[in-house]
Amino acid sequence: MKISYHKEYSHFLNREMEYKIYGHAGKPMLVFPTSLGRFYQYEDSGMVDTLQPFIEAGKLQIWACDSIDEETFFSSHWNVEDKINRHEQYDKYISQELIPGILHQSKWNNGGADQKILISGCSMGAYYGASFFFRYPQYFDTLIALSGVYSTHYFFGDYVSEQVYLNSPLNYLPELHDEYYLEQYRHSNIILCVGQGAYEDEMLHETRRLQDLLHHKKIPARIEYWGKDVDHDWPWWNKQIHHYVDSCL
Questions:
Q1: How far apart are CA 242 and CA 244, in angstroms?
Q2: Which of 50, 118, 214, 225 qualifies as a cystine partner to 219, CB 3.0-4.6 A?
Q3: What is the pTM of this model?
Q4: Residue 155 — pLDDT band, cuts 50, 70, 90?
C-alpha cells in the first residue's frame, strides 16, 4: 500500500497542518479523527487495515486529516465565540485548502476523471463529516457517519450565535429550503450508523432527530441502529466501515 505523509502551511490557521494519504487511486475519502484525535489515529485504530483490500485494489484512496479540537470545541480556556471563530478558520482550511488539493490530486490519480469525495468519521469525526457534507455538498456524494452528534448542543448547550448555527446541522436543516442544497443531498449516498450500547445515548438521540428531519425533507438516507451490545468504540467502527464502504464502491 502506498502511504505518504504531508505537512503543509495553512494560511487560514497560520500554522502547519499534517495529514496522511493511503493508496494510489480510486474514490477519494476524507476522514476526521475522534475528539482531540490526530491525523494518524485512523491508521493506529485499525481502520486503514480494515479498508486495505479496497485501497490496494485502487478502488479507494484515503486522506486522514488533523483536528485542532484543543483550540475549538474542547478548549478549556477560550469562551464560546473564540472557540467558534477558531473553528471557522479550521472550516476554511478544510474547505478552501485541503479539499481542493484532494480533488486535484484525485483527478490526477484517476486518469483525469473528476470525482466527488466520500466523507466519513467516527464520534467527533462523524460530527465533522456531517457538518462539512451538509454545508458544502458540492464537494461530496457520500457521507458515512458512525456514532456522531449532529448539532452543537453537545459542545455549547443552548448557545446559538450565527456562526454556531452554521455549524449545527440539526439547527439549520429544518429551515433550509434552497433546492440547490436539497437536490444535492437527495442525489448523494447518506449513511448514518449508531450503536445502542455504552456511551451511545447522546448519539442515538441526535441520529433519530436527523433521521426524522431527512425523512421530512424527502432526502433518502440509510440509517441503521446496531444492537444493544454495540458500544461507542473502535472494534465496532472497524466492522461498520468495511460494511458500508463495500456497499458504496
A1: 6
A2: 214
A3: 0.97
A4: very high
